[in-house]
């Protein structure tokens, strides 16, 4: 690639209200390192040996994206689109090919229309910004998406998107009513002009395989003025295993207003017989007040021993702060702070559970967990609305028949520990095989895991059959329709990545 050719092409095709030096950054630009690192979440892909982009484009106008797409295609550069930078495998900011990053952080306006119960959200907005802008207009509307406020709308919505109210309202993708996308030819399309196939594909099949999503139109959902939260931690010594066994039989059957998940960590007990043990925290969000919540839990989960004093009532937006790990006393505008993002080395995996894990399975799990203190497992209950949506309604296929999803996570602070933690999480994943979904062993696309399989380098010669190895895990039989749509909309496989949807011959 002749750098000057790409730059000339980009300059020629863009509208500029600001100097070009504020929109495109070369490796020589003083701001290049800080922009590269800005939203990149996983330090595994920010080491000195990680591949770096030729250019970073930070569009402030749609024409900059159109120009970046058309000129990259013309001069053989790959693109990586970044919205919030939370991809677990860093696919929005690393690539083995010669590439550019289109970083959408400047395109993040949000227009909330309470009268029509909808909003337009640009892809570069974060979930925190979206929740803040909704709450600013109304206390009785919300949106069912993820709990981490710095996650970007662009990647999150195009891969599913679940949070604490998804048992009542479904995923983010179940509540999208329109979208604007820039296609392979640099055209801007909306739902009508892109057609229902492409509109289906980008609601769960990953945006990066199909174009650059500019914005989404979402349907707001109603939330009560008071919600209730609680968290009850129990170590193994305090009976956590028995409680978890019971939880597995009821968590997907609770009332749709109740989300009661379980997070599992390794902790050190104090006192004379101090030791490492496992702690399971049963945490909940209830769309209603404590008087309604207590009898619901007492009826189906009396063993938890929930008391009124364990519960806190608050507004929905305060619960957003709570689940983000922030103090509910902080001013809500902390949600607008994009730089509060936790940057760590991270590896994650996921599974779906269709039959409760037997006691013997849990006993083995505890032993593996205590081998890595930096581990975390999050068990998310399904059921309710999630069981009432068909597997093919969107590319996200994990609906009825799943009791809960597991996220396995391990994080650390120094690069030299990477191999140790990654080997450990792979061992844990291998151990869990008999206890989770089979044929295929399914996984959540937004918890990207390249261990499941990847396309050949640079998109050359990856057959559909080869890609089915990982594609069916994320999308089950929706993978075929995704490949069909990909073949029609991007026949030259320009929007390629390690786990982009493959083409049919
Ligand atoms: P990022 O910018 O890295 O993009 C992710 C992928 O989407 C990349 O392939 C990228 O190229 C593509 N992409 C991004 N913007 C695009 C656009 N405009 N057009 C086309 N393609 C685009 N999930 C969940 O469901 N619920 C949760 O509560 C959480 N919580 C959570 C916490 C933390 C700390 C992390 C790191 C991750 C999560 N996730 C999650 C997972 C999250 O949903 C997932 O990583 C999203 O893809 C992140 O979207 P970003 O835009 O931030 O990522």
TrEMBL record:
Pfam families: BBE (PF08031), FAD_binding_4 (PF01565)
InterPro entries, per database record: BBE (IPR012951), FAD-bd_PCMH (IPR016166), FAD-bd_PCMH-like_sf (IPR036318), FAD-bd_PCMH_sub1 (IPR016167), FAD-bd_PCMH_sub2 (IPR016169), Oxid_FAD_bind_N (IPR006094)
Keyword flag Transmembrane: no
Cofactor(s) annotated in UniProt: FAD
The FAD-binding PCMH-type domain, residue ranges: 49-223
GO MF term (any one): FAD binding
Superkingdom, taxonomy of origin: Eukaryota
Keywords linked to the UniProt accession: Disulfide bond, FAD, Flavoprotein, Glycoprotein, Signal
Matching PANTHER family: OS08G0158400 PROTEIN
Family the entry assigns: Belongs to the oxygen-dependent FAD-linked oxidoreductase family.
Protein name per its UniProtKB record: FAD-binding PCMH-type domain-containing protein
